[in-house]
Amino acid sequence: MQSNSCCPVCRMNGYGFQPLPSYYADNLRAHGWPHGLDNFETLNVAAYTCPNCLSNDRDRLYTLFLERVFSHLDKTQTYTFLEFAPAALFSRWVKSHPFISYRSCDLYMPEADDKADIHALPYADNTYDFILCSHILEHVEDPVKAVSELRRVLKPGGFAIIMAPILLSIDKTYENPAAVTPADRWRHFGQDDHVRIFSKSGFRDTLTRGGVTLSEYPILEMVSEEQAAAYGINKRSVIYLGMKEVVSAAATTSTPEHKTEVLGGVPATSTRPKVSVVIPAYNHEKYVVEAVESVLGQSYQDFELLIMDDGSTDATPQVLRRYAGNPKVKLFLFEKNRGAAYSHNHGIVESRGEYIALLNSDDVWEPNKLAEQVAFLDAHPQIAAVFTPASFIGEQSQPLADHQHHLGRIFDQPNRTRHEWLRFFFVRNALCHPSSLVRRECYEELGLYDPRFGNLPDYEMWIRLCLKHEIHVMPKPLVRFRIRDGEAQASAPSSAGSHRWRLEHKQLAKHYLAIPSIADFNLIFPENAGNRFDDARLIPFYLADLILSQNVNPHTRDFAFETLYDFMASDENRSLVESIHGFQMKNFLNLTGGKPAN
User: Fold this and answer.
1) pLDDT score at 135
2) 22-243 carries CATH number 3.20.20.140
3) Is the torsion defined by CA of 101, 300, 307, 471 positive or negative?
4) Where in the chain is the domain with CATH 3.40.50.150?
5) CATH code for 251-422+435-491?
6) Which end of the chain is more exposed for a tag (fewer CB within 10 A), N or C?
7) With 50 as the cut, is the pLDDT of residue 454 above it?
8) Which residues are within 8 A (CB) of 484 and not within 5 positions of it... i.e. 6 or more apart?
9) Percentage of residues of the chain with pLDDT beyond 70
10) What is the pTM for the complete model shown?
């Protein structure tokens, strides 16, 4: 008797579990089956049945997994659930949840709600959020066709738990059409009504050929080995999920060179989450759990979490797999590294929320981050995005004082109008990217992050945003921004980094050529307000003049020279600035460091 045992189905503690009835071993031995029962992946021979509720090891495994799934669902919605060959105790447990609309089917069981052949189900496409198909495929004529039917009736974003006896001691699935008598089937397949025995690779192949996206959840990624034993579950057990993916723009861009494994996700429902949180991760095995837990632990819970591992070469993907069973989490594992901007964009395209938040995989949110920012955006529809300052932490998550790193209080900024922000952005960025909460329609209007910006993709996005919309900075730090060892005094980039920095600043400045009017230009650059000639053709001239004559941003001098050079190539433009400002070609040469020829 296991004094520490606990049945997930009936919640009875301390009674232990009874072994598999000897009927099976006796028949296998009598018919000469060549394999041992201990070679099955999920079967728990020593602890098979709960003496209180009579649940078997599979019932307990499914209950444990679905408890976690159900705990994250929006209980105001109704979810459809289909079970094949219903097990009385387990089906009663599923139906005990008021947000589940349950139905069962089987070809032979009279107690099933529907008599149905799994090869041709009587249900419409996209009907079910969840399906349990346990120990069916070893009985049917065409398991691939059966899986394709499961996929057909699943809703996009839904999943089917698809399980069968898997024999770990064989390399490929075994079938023998000549084995037709009960005795033959005991000898060949290990039971008198089975028509095949699956190998692990063969079972995976059957599911993928049936068209589902396969995800696997080992029990030891959900609980410890000791907990699995207490639940009477074989520590080798694996949950196999066949998922029906939501078709999206991002999904259609995948190529054989850039494979992506997609795990988990909330089943499709009639409503979308208020917030989508996107975490791009790359080689942050030490920090990513703290980042993810800071999201899952938010006081505000109406969100989905999309995690993008960008081809990490450390253990980050393995660390992240523990979250694949959480329905709030959708995990994307990219085979190759494609850069932070790509990960941001992939997450935004895959997301469904009204608001979108981004978090670096080594940073941490305060528990009320989403609650306070969502409340602010809900109350201020004229604001497109909201930010906060940040506190700073070190390698071990210890707090850092301002003087301990070069960023200091850079994120502590007063609020400004969008024009004032654009003037500020012309010199520097001081918005904390992982503090942002942005309305989805802003990305739909402005586009996604530009992957050509290796250093400044967020900076470039905020310029585009403020050319159209107002933003707001809340006063309280709601992000802990990590400064890793070696970064604390890293105020000067490398030579190559400096060159890249200048090139990207040059591209940032080009956005200012899109300022629509002289009135807007003068609100952004009040030092130009004395130039009241309301002709937008002058904007390139005024912008270049500010940079070259007032040294507004030394990073953009090349941009200013090229802008003025192109501007002065036009006879019309030369006549315009000469008539208004007396600016001639000799002035251009002097301003740009040239010397007029005699």
Assistant:
1) 95
2) no
3) positive
4) 22-243
5) 3.90.550.10
6) C
7) yes
8) 362, 394, 395
9) 90
10) 0.59
